[in-house]
Amino acid sequence: MAADANTWNAGFVAALLDRLPRPQRGSTVVGLSGLQGSGKSTLAGQLAAASRARGVETQVLSLDDVYFGRRERGRLARQVHPLLRTRGVPGTHDVALLLATLATLRRASAARPARLPRFDKGTDTRLPPSRWRRVTRRPALIVIEGWCLGVPPEPPDALAVPVNALERREDRDGRWRRYVNDRLAGEHARLNARLDYLVMLQAPDWPVVARWRTEQEQALHRRGAPQAMDGPALRRFLMHYERISRHALAVLPARADCVVPLDRRRRPGPPRVRR
Q: Which residues make beta-bridge pairs with 230?
């Protein structure tokens, strides 16, 4: 069962789909959590396609699509902490919008369609609602994918020690760390409580995750993408994610319903299912 950055083995996708709880009444909500570069967005799309092929109405939501735009993050940077100008960590997502979207999806109809938010990373802002996709049928299965999905807050005393140069130099008093951690304890916990089942794509360690993300950026450079970052910018960007990523690798395997271990080439091993 091999996977790379662009596709997952069809047999693996089918086997994973078989492990998900079968929709009964209403909509079953499955969370797919994986750190940067783990292939979660691709897997979410393939799971949805395989599910639809079985006749199950399925929709995918992404945490990335509810980022606050540049203007709102600028306000957070001025009022809370400058590091919130960079999208990524809890506190830079409009989780209330995602929860509202989930609620409207679960009762979607032709008379009351749901609209799925969409974020444009090229312009670094959310598209206007007029350009969001309309859904007119209630899905039996909803897959939500996100890099910090299911991750609990850290104990307050764990925030005292910086994990990298960004925290040491630009968050000396820990204000940014505390704000982010409070969002994990608040709005993100409310989102996690809506999940009926949580799948974790388990990377081997943080250095591998950083390498995967670097490979993604190199692909953007090859395509001539204007938003592609150079090496120093990417290293600084990844430091925003490091604390929660290391925390996720440490605690999420014991919390997820299904853990899919990945090797350094993103190849999945046998899933571990929590009884």
A: none
